[in-house]
Queue: 2 jobs
Job 1
Amino acid sequence: MTILKQQTSALHAGYEKDSQRTMAVPIYQTTAYEFRDVEHAANLFSLKELGNIYTRLMNPTTDVFEKRFAALEGGEAAIAAASGMSAIFFAIANCAEAGDNIICASQLYGGTLTQTQHTLKRFGIEARFFDVHKPAEIEALVDEKTKCIFFESLTNPSIDVADISAITAIAKKHKIITIVDNTVATPILCQPFEYGVDVTVHSASKYTTGQGLAIGGILVERKGLLEVLKGNPRYPQFNEPDASYHGLVYVDVPLPVFTLRIRLSLLRDIGAVVSPFNSWLFIQGMEHLSLRMKEHSANALAIAQFLESHPKVLKVNYPGLKSNSNYASAQKYFKNGMSSGLLSFEVADMETAEKIVNATELYSLVVNIGDSKSIITHPASTTHQQLSSEELIKCGVPAGLIRISAGLEDKDDLIDDIKQALESI
């Protein structure tokens, strides 16, 4: 089949109809699969044949989700996980081990900050941080133990746009893998592989499902990543025999090696696997993801334009605004300059922010994004509560910041509700 356009892939990629010829992808709700005989089972475990072994490793419904998402992202292969946070952990743990370090943008989702700064530290992996607007800072952080550079294409909740090309240029100079969280932009608005990124991760719980129905994550590797890994002294785990898998050398296997190693090692041993039913829900969401992202972006822009004109609002963070410092980068990296449905704005202080959030009627106070229904959040008291005042400022989350995930309601209703909330204080 010829290479399909993105929207066509969202509806068809990865699914070959079985004997029942069902139009909808079936839900293979099973833990295990029967082998034809002992030889067949042995061949599967030794990779002489490819096929289903156990749903902790693979599942036919999840396989369609993975192939379809990889097609949307323009990547070679994908692997699904139980959540976005587990996808991030798998991506980093596939690169680094005790004694290594990773370089991360300071402007990250709160959960990612705690995972990289604290949890991974207990595994012996050090996180070093740079300002996403100052990629040159990366150079001073790199040493022979640096295993990956991690950042978000569109940051949550500071709403900054990374200079992807500048970061990947430094990574290529030092032969370091780059990992980008593309959750907020989605593959519809941003294609990080076109700018040199090696691996993308997503929380499928957000825009992919689109209705807050399921928790899940997914990781995609770019085409040709083997060229970076093969013979690279930074990554002996791909070039030396894996004692836990019959001495397998991953770079010698004619398969996408980054996701293969996660499947055969990390997913196998840690088990943070997505359920087949959740994979099925994500497949449904992907079919209309491109339509929703246009509406999310349009509503967010309208709200941002209103907020920018309001006297009680100190600052609005949305790259779709021409006045925003990220506008040029959004025009460069995002499709037609659309900047997703996430925006934030600052008011005088935490007390004022809390009053505004409490005064809204249409927006739901929820710590999620990407839902079809609009969401409002006060990050300093919720998602980033664990950070000190200094850390909040450093990652772009001052105490008076309010985050909005613009849903699919009529934009006039959304603006009217935030207007009355501002005027109530």
Note: The chain has two domains: 6-284, 289-423.
Job 2
Amino acid sequence: MDTQRLRGKICVITGAASGIGRACAIRYAAEGARVVLADIDHAGGESAVNEITAAGGQAVFQPTDVSEPAQLEALLGRALATYGDVHVWHNNAFKSVFKTIIDQTLQEFDDTVRISLRAYWYGSKIAVMHMVNHNGGVILNTASVQSYFGEPGFSAYQVAKGGILSLTRSIGVDHAPKVRAVAIAPGFIHTPAHQGIPAETIERVKASIPAQRGAQPEEVAALAAFLASDEADYITGTGVIIDGGYLGI
């Protein structure tokens, strides 16, 4: 039996140079997918591709600023030109400021929403347009436990992550059965994205997790690989939480 659940799939993932995105790209390739990695971090993206190819996988890097629609179109074009199709489009790149609504500026809010929500909408739009006219596919969106509840000091981030969950639902409803859409909602994950979050906030969150630890990006990647696969064919229009029980408190 073939143990590579993504064999024959072409996967595109944004924000793939580090953290959850990098772990997902590596896992997709290990599961047999051909992967197109996108990020503004050229060195990190190329490093991830080198890691994948050194392990025998297939991957290319496309420098991409997801806030620019033309660059998302170029990303889709690179995938089609290189591998001929797209079966999985994973919106993962994000930006945020960790401030209350009083402290954040309009520019900070706009930057967060442009990268962490509008880019998901546009990436999904162009990917779904391709998928419905070809072989179908899956949209994966990296959301957050903060898509479901409020955490102090994350105003703009919560707007974006809540919007991602709603976007996922709408795609799942509008384009089934040919296209599935699933949001992955991580809790506390050990990634470089924690830089800038107040240390007391991090310690408070970690102390309240029933699993008594944060997760590694590879644990999110394992979930993403399953959701991207045909084994998850009945999962669409919803979010899947991976948080060590945090939302149960």
Note: Strands lie at 10-14, 34-39, 58-63, 88-91, 137-142, 179-186, 238-242.
